[in-house]
Amino acid sequence: MADLHAAAADALTAWPAPDAEQERLRVTYLEHLAAHQDGMWKACRDGHLTASALVIDPDRGRVLLTLHRKLRMWLQMGGHCEPQDATLAAAALREATEESGVAGLTLLPAGPVRLDRHHTPCAWHLDVQYAALAPAGAEPVVSAESLDVRWFDYAEVAAVADDSVVRLVERTRALL
C-alpha cells in the first residue's frame, strides 16, 4: 500500500501540468501526500487521492458517462483507490472498466489528462483524471454504482454534466 503512495507521488512529480491552475493543484496534491501517509485511502478524512478516466470514442466523436448512483450526476468513471492498485493509472483503468462494463479500454499514454479537486459526502477528492480509449463497437453495461451509462456526443456534454467534466472532455480532445 505504501507503494501506491510512492507511485502516486512519482506520477505527479513527473506530470507536466498544462497551465498555472493545474500546476497549483499538482503541488497541492504532492503536499497532501507528504503530509498524509494514508492520503491515498478513503479512510483519510482530510481528503484522499482518487483516480478516474473519461472513456472516449474519438472515431465517433463521443464520450461515455455514468449517472452516478449516489451523486445523481453524469460523470466520468472513477473512484477510490484499492489495495490491489499499483498505480493511479491502474486504479483509473480498473474503475473505468468496472463502471463502464467495457473490456479492452486503453489509457492515453501521456499520463494524467488533468486534476480536479472537489468535495464529496465522504471527504475532499483529489482526483487524478485520465482518458481511456474505447475499442471499436464498445457496448457499455450499467454497474451497481450507476443508474445509467450512456454515450454522449462531444457537443451534448455541457448540457448534461458539470464544468469539471466539460473541462476534462476539452483537455482530452486537445491531447488526441
Explain how this protein is built.
With 176 residues, the chain is of the alpha+beta class. The protein contains 5 helices and 8 strands. β6 (114-119) and β7 form a beta hairpin. α1 runs antiparallel to α2 (20-35). The longest helix is centred in the N-terminal third of the chain and has 16 residues, at 20-35. It is globular.
Helical fraction equals 25-40%
Could you give the distance between the termini?
33 Å
Multimeric status of the protein: single chain
Mean pLDDT: 94
- The succession of helices and strands, N to C, reads HHEEEEHEEEEHH
* Structural class by secondary-structure content: alpha+beta
| Helix count from the secondary structure assignment | 5
**What percent strand?**
25-35%
User: What is the total tally of β strands?
Assistant: 8
| CA-based shape | globular
Largest sheet: 8 strands, mixed
Poorly predicted parts: none
Using only CA atoms, what is the Rg? 15 Å
List the helices and strands and how they pair.
Elements: H1 2-14, H2 20-35, E1 48-57, E2 62-68, E3 74-75, E4 77-80, H3 88-100, E5 106-107, E6 114-119, E7 124-133, E8 146-153, H4 157-160, H5 163-175
Parallel strand pairs: 1-7
Antiparallel strand pairs: 1-2, 1-4, 2-3, 2-8, 5-7, 6-7
Helix pairs in contact: 1-2
Summary tags:
single chain; 176 residues; alpha+beta; 8-stranded mixed sheet; 28% strand
